[in-house]
Amino acid sequence: MTNPQTVFGEFSGMSHDSSQLQNISDQQAQIMRNLGNTLDNLATHLQGQAGTAMQSLGDRLITIGNQFSTKFADHSDMMRNNVQLLNNNEEHNASIIRGVEGLT
After folding, report:
1. What's this model's pTM, rounded to 2 decimal places?
2. What is the 3-state secondary structure (H, E, C) of the chain?
3. Residue 92 and residue 48: Cα distance in Å, rounded?
4. Is-contact 7 97, C-beta < 8 A?
5. What separation in angstroms does the CA of 14 have from each of 23, 26, 45, 75?
6. Mean pLDDT of the chain, nearest integer
7. Cα–Cα dist 61/36, whole Å
8. Tens digits of per-residue pLDDT, 34-84?
9. Which of 7, 65, 2 is nearest to 31 (CA)?
10. Exposed/middle/buried for residue 24 (C-beta within 10 Å: 0-12, 13-18, 19+)
11. Measured in Å, how far apart are the chain's first and last C-alpha atoms?
12. Contact, 22 vs 37, CB < 8 A?
């Protein structure tokens, strides 16, 4: 049981959000890859400029999807790191407060 005089932060929400961002990143990357691959495959059945345009669009969707996915993953990592830093600082500050409390 937590001491009612203990001050602490609740960081589980941030942990949950970072996990959700990672899931969004993974899903978004998969969707963009699938769509890009579909357009690439369609390009093989089209001739001339239409085929070239579909292939180019498919490649572009895959590239953009990977870029967005990387950004989501980076933000997820940053949030996870922030949670760890906040938890570590909270433990350190609690130790200082206990030390001050021991002086009285």
Report:
1. 0.62
2. CCCCCCCCCCCHHHHHHHHHHHHHHHHHHHHHHHHHHHHHHHHCCCCCHHHHHHHHHHHHHHHHHHHHHHHHHHHHHHHHHHHHHHHHHHHHHHHHHHHHHHHC
3. 66
4. yes
5. 14, 18, 47, 11
6. 82
7. 5
8. 999 998 888 888 889 998 998 999 999 899 988 888 888 888 888 888 888
9. 65
10. middle
11. 24
12. no
Q: Which amino acid is at 1?
A: M
Long-range CB pairs of 83-87, under 8 A, 24+ apart, other chains included = 83/11, 83/14, 83/15, 83/18, 86/9, 86/11, 86/14, 87/9, 87/11
Contact 36, 65 (CB under 8 A): yes
Domain-wise residue ranges, the chain = 29-93
Q: Round to whole Å and give the CA distance between 74 and 36.
A: 23
Residue type, 7: V
